[in-house]
């Protein structure tokens, strides 16, 4: 509405205001442009993205331009690299500049994280042809020294040795220039397909891109278990860019904004959400607390036990006739699909693919199972991207943020809290139904750790959802194995499993283990796969997957093969 009114004002105003709107997804960009045009009664807005590309002159004719987060980040990065042409394509229009820039939803990737392992560097070194080595000696020296450093760290594995260490705090322009030149030369090089797969050029360029950022700014070493890596990061909205407005409903939970307020005093401010806008008193939050792990690795290792226990418990709690949205880790989604039945139909989302979506807005139950813990390197990198490189003392013992945690730990858990609030608000509690800001009655089920991390998540759920009613939920994710009804066909789960797989052959025995299928269920799947006209065969064919059987009798082996 605001953009449509602004476009009307621009018609006869001597100082027109162009608008740039940034949305997370392509589909959102199209919808926003359509809605503005509908309200304005004429075509004043246009969406520009990979599925609807416009020339710079075409974009410049519209009062309102809508682009995606990815395009905005690329343009901001170019602006920071003193190459403003890409930014100006969006920023300038036929009557001046777009002085109102609105980013819808948090810029989740505003901090660019860069990492490289010894294996990564080995891939690059093996890919450099002999003739390019002599042309880029500094680049080769840098790559070899970095790999040698990591190899030595992997060999030593000294007990009690530092888990993190600052390597350098400022860039080396000569090395950066040669790495950049090597990247350009390799892009024009034909890789030997007998030695490298089809994705190798992109992989090599991505690794070199990470190394380039490290050599251009700072780098630190980090060890997590047996994994050793070099790391760096940068904030992608550079100083000097025109001001932007970020519409982030969970901004008060994001430590990154607080750090930016301190680091860029006067240039960044978080505007408090006015009170009385929303009232979540019709939402009941059922909270279970546990000492068991809830991260990705633990949930993957225990999913065959935990998923049936969860489904049985939710079925007992909500009964029939409810629309249930479940948010889980991606590695659990396909197994969970097999438990969606006519009696308890499940709408399933997973961390990393729920923010900003309206797919589940009619669901009256939300179940949050498993937490999207941030990689510690991302938490450290986010702080360093804003505050700059720190010394070894800071890396090995970051200063406290409050009585419970240091700055990276608090940033990480409050990121979890913001993600949880986003996931909860994918269901119908997102919609206001009366003048008091209430929503329709909604039940939310969540499992949280018993420690300060669970307390912090609860604190920020209450902060972002005022009036929510929390009650205990007597559920423990681990315990005796239970039976929960499953759908008659596992075909949908098989399709989902293969959709996310990389190219190559997947034994049907692996499919059976991943989805906990009985021999009888597996036999049904194979029977359908053997039919050229079956729905599962057609769906898999669209994903580039074929069913292959080798041998006869007891020696028969069957696979699903995904093309590159």
Task: Give an account of the 3D structure.
With 564 residues, the chain is an alpha/beta fold. The chain is 41% helix and 18% strand. It has a six-stranded parallel sheet with strand order 14-13-15-16-12-17. Strands 2-3-1-6-11 form a five-stranded parallel sheet. A four-stranded antiparallel sheet has the order 7-10-9-8. A hairpin with a 6-residue loop joins strand 19 (545-550) and strand 20. Helix 1 (2-10) packs across helix 2, helix 8 (137-156) packs across helix 9 and helix 16 (407-424) packs across helix 17 (452-464). The radius of gyration is 26 Å and the shape is globular. The relative contact order is 0.09. The model has no long low-confidence stretch (mean pLDDT 92).
Q: In brief, what are we looking at here?
A:
The protein is α/β, with parallel strands linked by helices.
Mean pLDDT: 92
> Which percent range fits the helix content?
40-55%
Strand content: 15-25%
Q: What strand order characterises the main sheet?
A: 14-13-15-16-12-17
Any low-confidence stretches, pLDDT <50, length ≥5?
none
The major pleated sheet works out as:
6 strands, parallel
What is the end-to-end distance?
Answer: 46 Å
Structure class: alpha/beta
Number of helices: 21
- From the alpha carbons, calculate the radius of gyration and give it in angstroms: 26 Å
Overall geometric form: globular
How many beta-strand segments? Answer: 20
């Amino acid at each position: 509405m605001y953009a449509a009114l602004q476009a009307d004002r621009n018609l006869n105003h001597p100082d027109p205001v162009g608008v740039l709107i940034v949305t997370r997804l392509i589909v959102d960009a199209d919808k926003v442009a359509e809605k503005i045009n509908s309200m304005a009664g004429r075509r004043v807005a246009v969406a520009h993205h990979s599925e609807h590309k416009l020339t710079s002159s075409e974009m410049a004719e519209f009062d309102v331009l809508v682009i995606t987060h990815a395009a905005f980040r690329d343009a901001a990065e170019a602006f920071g690299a003193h190459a403003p042409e890409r930014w100006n394509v969006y920023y300038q229009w036929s009557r001046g500049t777009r002085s109102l820039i609105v980013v819808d939803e948090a810029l989740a990737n505003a901090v660019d994280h860069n990492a490289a392992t010894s294996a990564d560097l080995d891939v690059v070194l093996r890919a450099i042809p002999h003739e390019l080595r002599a042309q880029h000696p500094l680049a080769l020296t840098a790559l070899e020294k970095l790999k040698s450093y990591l190899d030595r760290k992997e060999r030593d594995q000294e007990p009690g040795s530092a888990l993190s260490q600052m390597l350098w705090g400022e860039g080396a322009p000569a090395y950066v220039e040669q790495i950049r030149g090597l990247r350009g030369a390799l892009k024009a090089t034909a890789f030997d397909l007998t030695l490298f797969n089809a994705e190798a050029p992109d992989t090599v360029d991505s690794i070199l891109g990470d190394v380039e950022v490290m050599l251009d700014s700072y780098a630190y070493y980090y060890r997590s278990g047996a994994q050793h890596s070099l790391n760096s990061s940068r904030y992608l909205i550079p100083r000097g860019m025109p001001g932007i407005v970020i519409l982030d409903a969970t901004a008060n939970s994001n430590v990154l904004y607080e750090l930016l307020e301190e680091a860029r005093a006067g240039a960044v401010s978080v505007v408090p959400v006015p009170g009385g806008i929303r009232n979540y008193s019709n939402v009941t939050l059922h909270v279970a607390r546990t000492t068991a792990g809830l991260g990705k690795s633990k949930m993957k290792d225990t999913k065959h036990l935990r998923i049936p226990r969860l489904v049985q418990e939710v079925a007992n709690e909500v009964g029939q006739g409810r629309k249930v949205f479940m948010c889980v880790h991606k590695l659990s989604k396909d197994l969970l699909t097999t438990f969606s039945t006519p009696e308890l139909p499940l709408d399933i989302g997973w961390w990393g693919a729920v923010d900003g979506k309206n797919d589940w807005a009619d669901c009256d139950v939300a179940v949050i199972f498993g937490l999207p813990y941030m990689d510690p390197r991302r938490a450290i990198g986010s702080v360093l991207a804003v505050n700059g490189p720190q010394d070894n003392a800071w890396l090995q013992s970051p200063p406290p943020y409050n009585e419970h945690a240091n700055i990276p730990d608090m940033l990480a858990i409050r990121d979890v809290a913001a993600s949880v609030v986003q996931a909860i608000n994918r269901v119908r509690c997102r919609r206001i139904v009366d003048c008091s800001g209430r929503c329709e009655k909604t039940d939310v089920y969540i499992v949280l750790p018993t420690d300060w991390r669970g307390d912090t998540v609860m604190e920020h759920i209450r902060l972002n959802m005022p009036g929510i009613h929390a009650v205990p939920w007597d559920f423990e994710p681990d315990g005796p194995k239970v039976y929960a009804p499953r759908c008659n066909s596992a075909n949908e789960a098989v399709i989902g499993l293969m959709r996310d797989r990389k190219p190559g052959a997947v034994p049907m025995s692996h499919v059976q283990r991943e989805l906990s299928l009985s021999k009888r269920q597996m036999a049904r799947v194979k029977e359908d796969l053997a039919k050229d006209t079956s729905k599962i065969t057609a769906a898999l064919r669209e994903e580039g997957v074929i069913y292959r059987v080798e041998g006869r009798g007891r020696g028969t082996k069957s696979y699903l093969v995904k093309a590159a």
